[in-house]
Known about the structure:
The chain has helices at 19-34, 55-66, 89-101, 112-124, 147-155, 203-213, 229-239, 263-269, 290-293, 297-305, 320-326, 341-354, 357-370, 382-393, 402-405, 408-411, 419-425, 430-442, 449-463, 467-479, 487-510, and strands spanning 6-9, 38-41, 72-73, 105-108, 161-164, 171-176, 180-185, 193-196, 218-222, 245-249, 252-253, 278-279, 286-287, 337-338. The protein is mainly α and 511 residues long. It folds into three domains: 1-74 and 250-354, Rossmann fold (3-Layer(aba) Sandwich), CATH 3.40.50.620; 88-249, Glutamyl-tRNA Synthetase, domain 3 (Alpha-Beta Complex), CATH 3.90.800.10; 357-510, Arc Repressor Mutant, subunit A (Orthogonal Bundle). It contains 21 helices and 14 strands. The relative contact order is 0.08. The strands form six sheets. A three-stranded parallel β-sheet has the order 1-2-3. Strands 4-5-8 form a three-stranded antiparallel β-sheet. Strands 6-7 form a two-stranded antiparallel sheet. The structure holds glutamic acid. Glutamic acid (GLU) is lined by residues 10-12, 44, 203, 207, 221, 225.
Amino acid sequence: MSQRVRVRFAPSPTGPLHIGGVRTALYNYLFAKKHDGDFLLRIEDTDQARYVANAEQYIIDSLNWAGIPYDEGLGKEGKHAPYRQSERKEIYKQYIQELIENGWAYYAFDSAEKLELLRKQYESEGKTFSYGWENREQLESSLSISAADVQKRIENGENYVIRFKIPKNETLHLTDLIRGDMKIETNTLDDKVLFKSDGMPTYHLANIVDDHLMEITHVIRGEEWLPSMALHQLLYRAFEWQAPQFAHLPLLLKPEGQGKLSKRDGDKFGFPVFPMEFKDEKTGEVSRGYREDGYFPEAFINMLALLGWHSDNDQEIFSLDELIQAFSLERVSKSGAKFDVAKTQWFQQQYLQKKSDEDLATMFAAYIEKNNIKIPEYIQDKSHFIFKLVQLLRERAVFVSDFYKTGKFFFETPTVYDEIAVKKVWQIDTKEILQNLEELLASTTLFDAVVLEEQIKNWITEKGYGMGKVFQPFRLALVGSMSGPHVFDIAAVIGKQETLNRLINIQKKLS
Ligand code: GLU
């Protein structure tokens, strides 16, 4: 590859960025970095009707959070600035003019109402209306109206659009780096609108002009744009520009059944479809995000990378650098990738398990602070407490929040006891046993898990109680249920006073 590789992510700020969009950005980023090239961010905001004010910042923040930085684009202005299409209007005007002059585009004055009527009329005859080679000379276009009249109508402020004139009777040969070769008959294409009288280009024109001016070598984008590829090729030809190479990525599919992954699927199966929480400023509706759900960006990215791409061996865990090394468009699949909720959590768990106790403790401390969780008074050394909880609970944790969720009893004295457990564990002699245990522990000075274990076990043997008869109600007293780590560890963490307190509480409550 002699030319410097340049790719772009070109989202439209019409709402929160879907995780499919993040994956498109990620694949572009990986491809660029693999080939020592540039990754650009361009905002395609020509559709003013669908513009959402906070979407642009959301896109930038999402890319930053996910850890896929762009080299050039909004806020990182390079020689092709500006990178927001609404600020490039003048540029498109010049190019649409060129297409008109060369006979590749024409004015059309047909009103929206008239076209709607035609559409209905065709429909009633079982046909579909499309503006193109079959009818463009009979409609109100500059192909049928004299140049002078066209001029007059424009000067009179009439609304118009400028359409691309698709050539007739041609077979186009298209190549996609993922899908291979395709043939398209130009007679099946309609004359798409490229420009409107409000001075705004449509997506097709702006996209091609910018990709050319920004020296984009590879267009890597979602499969929904595949039908536009023929028109885009023709536009490159009309401008006599070299077209970039195209790669259309497979869709992200619903966890079950057919179709594109939607927000509704997320709500139904309980997972986010957006990288970060998004607040719709009009409706006030808040959509959940991976960031707020507690996913690590590395886990999120790793999961996304494997939705539609796989390595040549069975490796699943990849750092970003490893992804850059391993990534290739050849290994992107043609068929859609089914979203897998359990697998997504699995990735998060893998990344959490790889972290050191120290790192997890720092994160857990931040979580405690952010959520205003009170560390109980019976805890003397707060950092040690946090560190200990991480050590005791990490094995089964998926998210940092799990240290709190599965370890709540470390923070709060139980006030209720799991009914099923009570039925099973609480027997006639239990109260007496716990009372004796209480006495034993009251005289214990060193509240250390190992010491306690040895001491209590010896005591049980001496008394002839049987282990389960003591440990089970002891656990119930400390936790409120039969879950949690080793009971001696719990006792050591909450300390002597609180352990005794909990033993007294359960006796009062259950007898
Ligand atoms: N603005 C388009 C979008 O929102 C970009 C499509 C493309 O990458 O060409 O997806």
